[in-house]
């Protein structure tokens, strides 16, 4: 029988290369294109496909990214209503995003190889507009 320590070590080894927190690069990716407040950023991330974002965890993660100097924030008092924090990506955040992009590219290659072996006749689902363009 395996001890808990051996089982934990075994589970860690089976998760090689898997993204640990995919929310971070998605946040940085959106902040790369525009400065925004947290609520709007959370909406964009939901539209991206991450539907079940825990609001408390989201704001803790934003504060941690700020502590790590990957994002900065400042209070916006120009709009009506309560002041809002506007978040921006830093140069260090852009470099971190570049690292994630490289890692995800490698991960994508592994996924492609997996599906090529798993089902050599597998083709990704295409949007109706892509299918229409191919038919023309």
UniProtKB/TrEMBL annotation:
May I ask which residue range the UniProt record assigns to the signal sequence? none
Lineage: superkingdom: Bacteria
In what residue span(s) does the Transcription regulator PadR N-terminal domain sit? 28-97
List, alphabetically, the InterPro entries matched. Metal_resp_DNA-bind_regulator, Tscrpt_reg_PadR_N, Tscrpt_rep_PHB_PhaQ, WH-like_DNA-bd_sf, WH_DNA-bd_sf
For this protein, the record's NCBIfam families field holds:
repress_PhaQ (TIGR02719)
Q: What is this protein called?
A: Poly-beta-hydroxybutyrate-responsive repressor
